[in-house]
Amino acid sequence: MAAVTTSAATPAPREKARTGPRTTPQQKAGWGIGNFVVIALALIPVLWMVSLSFKTPAAILDPSFLPKSWTWSNYTQILQTSQFIRPLINSIGIGLIATLIAVVLASMAAYAIARLAFPGKSVLIGMSLLIAMFPQIALVTPMFNIERSLGLFNTWPGLIIPYVAFGLPLGIYTLSAFFREIPWELEKAAKMDGATPFQAFTKVIAPLAAPGMVTTAILVFLFCWNEFLFAISFTSTTASRTAPASIAYFSGSSVFTVPTGPISAAAVVITIPIIIFVLFFQRRIVAGLTSGAVKG
Amino acid sequence: MSVETTAGTQAVPQTSGKVKKVPLSEGARAERNLGWMLCAPAVIVMIGVTAYPVVYAIILSLQRYNLELPQAVKFIGFSNYAAVLSSPYWWQALKVTVIITVFSVGITLVLGMLLALLMHRTLFGRGTVRTAALIPYGIVTVAAAYGWQYAWTPGQGYLSAAFGNSAPLTTEISSIIVIIVAEIWKTTPFMALLLLAGLSLVPDDLQKAAKVDGATAWQRFTRITLPLMKPAILVALLFRTLDSFRIFDNIFILTNGANNTGSVSVVGYDNLFNALNLGIGSTISILIFICVAIIAFAFIKGFGTAAPGSDIGKR
Fold first, then answer.
1. Is the ipTM of this complex over 0.90?
2. pTM
3. Residue A215: which domain range?
4. Domain containing B220: what range?
5. CA distance A106 to chain B (A)
6. Chain B residues with CB inside 8 Å of A267's CB?
7. Residues A53 and A153 in one domain
């Protein structure tokens, strides 16, 4: 905090730095190599799955990276059946609803934790840590019974509720870290100008906190999209089974031959929404949290 | 520090004095109520979903409870704990879990920091790098694990072919290495994303000022970036360690615990769903939880990781 105000108060070095040396071709090449390595490492295993998904059953028994003969049959096989389409819809719907609820609730709690004095705060913190740490396996058996008695078993809310509960500690933890770094002088200024604490939250702090909330939303959504243990334990049909659980059912469907092609095709299909999602949001992830607020 | 002084001079002196003497002034009461109101929904959801199952898991762990012998359910105190703690399977699983956690988290921290710096500072193609780096994190663990499994299957996978038609998933140590690699590939973007959040809080002005003063890139990294990022690093480390300790999906697909590669979670799952032993399965779950609690305690007390809201003094 002290550092922030100091640097904001002394703009002189910033001016100097602007006239500093330009980037050399060597630096450019260095960053270029770094970029290339990251992109290659990230994509090769994905491309391998894409390649597998286009291989014919015979070609799958050939270790070459690219298929020698291409086929769409793995895709037509999985996309013709509601056994995969419906889980895909479930995954998107359940993930989006759970994320929205978790981020809204976590933002409220994280704001209170970061900013307000009230008794019971440390209990709340301890409780979220406890939940973040708890091995999900331990919850599966009792929750299975609870969900069946409440009629939540094999429904969307049956997965949304536990996803919200497990997204919340991550959200509260991440967001309160973000919120602590926000320049709260602005809130004090707003309050001095006559804003209520609630107005200070919605008009001043929420816009500043938005990048942190987007980041948190991405983390929570990907958690929901990835989750496997609950998805396979609390569902029994495609009415609420999510995509990862349905892939596991592919592999269980034939005992003697592993359905490598269809599994790879399904893996590629459930990766596409993530790529779109990340493409759409990645710019906002790192949008300067306080840019313009402190640096002025 | 400077914030507090400015706030002190800006605030009306009377009010701050009033708050100190009478704890429940109008403002303080409103603040307390708002705090409770804002936290209530999150608290209700978290308690509702976890409190009863947690208590139930503890109760189950104190019972002899095999689903195949429902008549024989009986309270047996801590016998399940004695049985698990004297079993070599538990200690082998714990060893595997600790090895996987230490190596995957350690390597992920270094790679995640490099990736975060690259995503933060690279001169061109920033969007492409970020998108590419986030893909491994986004991919469903189960799907990625199938990819690794096929890649390491002799006669079928490119990695197996590249390493002399090897079959690493058939022996203990090489299996664990494959599992660690799969974990690192999957979780480095998560680490980088959290570190990037911390990195974006490091003011550019400071970096530029230090550069003008002649600090090298390494000095700027160790003297400015790292200290300012410490909270973000510790939070990221804590989350990755806790998560890695519960490792399940990757092992489940890659080896399913064959050749002594099962983690504590895999052993717990086997006892719960394959042996149908709810008592032993719940005991293992509670023991995992205790291990994880020790790790978290060490982070928060030992390394000073900030629990949310713990640094109220900062206000």
1. no
2. 0.78
3. 76-285
4. 86-314
5. 7
6. 139-140, 143-144, 146-147
7. no
